[in-house]
Design goal:
The protein has eleven helices and 21 strands. By secondary structure, it is α/β, with parallel strands linked by helices.
């Protein structure tokens, strides 16, 4: 469960706003009282004046009572959970507390929610005793990713006589994060994953305070079996070896967000499939101990919590996965027309395993994607077939000019990619297993060999 922020006390309004909350009954009483007072003056009837003053005073007293008691109600909101996958419900609990010494009248609660989450919830509370509490709840659900504000909470107060109704808004609000749906992937080893396990694992020197491959001066307590005699003879003092430690396997998940590369829109569109595929792949690799970096066609590399540009797997991978999903929850289509920016980032070093989700690729962009393969130990590409995704029910085609997917796959495979087409109805777990079967024996490509 995740707790939303407390609503606290409602925003203060002036007495003029309270007077504007007079109901039809209250306005009628006030008008009748004024009329009776005028008639008593004209007719010289003192008793009629008393009646008029009583009729006019009653709604005004109700306004003053509501104006003062409206600051004595506190509210809070709780989301359970505050982060949900698309098409999954979250429960919102509202808690109202009467912190005054007097019981309230009839209360109506109304929470503001975006239209995409469903209808605006309303609740009626008959009476809340002094110091009493009431809890109500409702559910929200969205098929679309995003961050949606909930609140502020509105509270409508009324007096026991129905003379005045006052609507007040609390100041606080909460956010519901709808992340892409994550599918569990089969535990098959993709080409290049051997670089992170067993004998194929890469090694790197440890950082400050840990073992390294460079000899260093002898320190009290060092094991004499680690003495490096050649360096000892060279430097004229006792030197010991710094041991190697394994390096965490690396992976880059490349998401093509170009607007003109993904036809259609909505939760079942090609772009949403690619986003969900990137999320599932990243979470799967994090659970397997990879250090995962999320890269888009714009060249933007989403930094991990340590600011190093990647999310660390293994221990704490659940937290890293949550941060990465929060990023993918708000990713939008870009106005880029090519993949050059992403290629410039990738050619800076060896990326280990590269998993890409491409939209439509013309011949020029397929060549750029092929060059990306040169800077990775292994590369797997899921290419969305724009021609298939642009067809509606009954095979009706809504867009033209698509390059046949077979040509793009051939160009990528010649460059060394393991490339698979994606059509509507395909599932990532099945494609993930198919990619592993196409790559052959992982050990043959360990260390970046293809």
């Amino acid at each position: 469960m995740s707790d939303g922020g407390s609503e606290g006390a409602p925003e203060r309004d002036g007495l003029r706003a309270a007077l504007a909350g007079l109901t039809t009954r209250g306005r009628s009483f006030l008008a009748a009282g004024v009329a009776a007072a005028v008639c008593s003056y004209l007719l010289g009837q003192a008793d009629l004046l008393r009646v008029g003053l009583l009729l006019a005073a009653l709604p005004l007293v109700c306004v003053l009572v509501l104006h003062r008691t409206r600051y004595r109600v506190a509210g809070s909101r709780t989301l359970a959970p505050a982060r949900v996958p698309a098409a999954t419900e979250s429960r919102v609990r509202l808690r109202m507390e009467n912190v005054s010494r007097l019981p309230t009248g009839v209360l109506m609660l109304q929470d503001r929610v975006p239209y995409v989450l469903g209808p605006r919830p309303r609740f009626i509370l008959d009476r809340v005793e002094a110091g009493g509490r009431r809890e109500v709840s409702y559910r929200v659900r969205s098929d679309l990713r995003g961050r949606y504000p909930l609140g502020p909470l509105q509270l409508r107060l009324s007096d026991p006589f129905g003379m005045c109704e006052l609507t007040r808004s609390f100041s606080a609000s909460d956010t519901l994060t709808v992340v892409p749906r994550v599918e569990p992937l089969p535990a098959v080893r993709q080409v290049g994953e051997a670089a992170g396990y067993g004998e194929g694992r890469q090694h790197s020197p440890a950082l400050a305070g840990e073992d390294d491959v460079i000899p260093r001066g002898y320190r009290h307590g060092d094991d004499l079996r680690r003495v490096h005699w050649r360096s000892t003879a060279r430097y004229g003092e006792l030197m010991v070896r710094r041991e190697e430690q394994p390096q965490k396997a690396r992976c880059t998940v490349l998401l093509d967000t170009r607007e003109d590369a993904h036809p259609g829109s909505g939760p079942d569109s090609a772009f949403e499939w690619a986003v969900a595929g990137a999320a599932s792949t990243a979470v799967h690799l994090l659970e397997r101990g990879f250090s995962v970096r999320l890269l888009t066609d714009t060249g933007s590399s989403v930094p991990g919590p340590d600011g190093a540009g990647s999310f660390a797997g293994g221990t704490g991978s659940a937290d890293a996965a949550g941060l990465l999903l929060d990023t993918l929850a708000v990713v939008e289509r870009s106005e880029e027309h090519g993949l050059s920016a992403a290629y410039d980032v990738l050619r800076g070093g060896n990326e280990g395993l590269l998993v890409a989700f491409f939209g439509d690729l013309d011949e020029e962009q397929a060549v750029v994607a092929g060059r990306m393969r040169q800077r990775s130990g292994a590369a797997v590409a899921f290419v969305l077939d724009g021609d298939a995704w642009s067809r509606g029910p009954g095979g009706i085609r809504f867009s033209d000019g698509q390059v046949p997917v077979a040509e793009r796959l051939q160009l990528l495979r010649k460059a060394g990619w393991t490339a698979l087409p994606v059509t509507p109805g395909d599932t990532l777990p099945a494609l993930w297993r198919a990619a592993a079967e196409r790559t052959g024996t992982p050990e043959t490509v360990a260390g970046g060999r293809s």
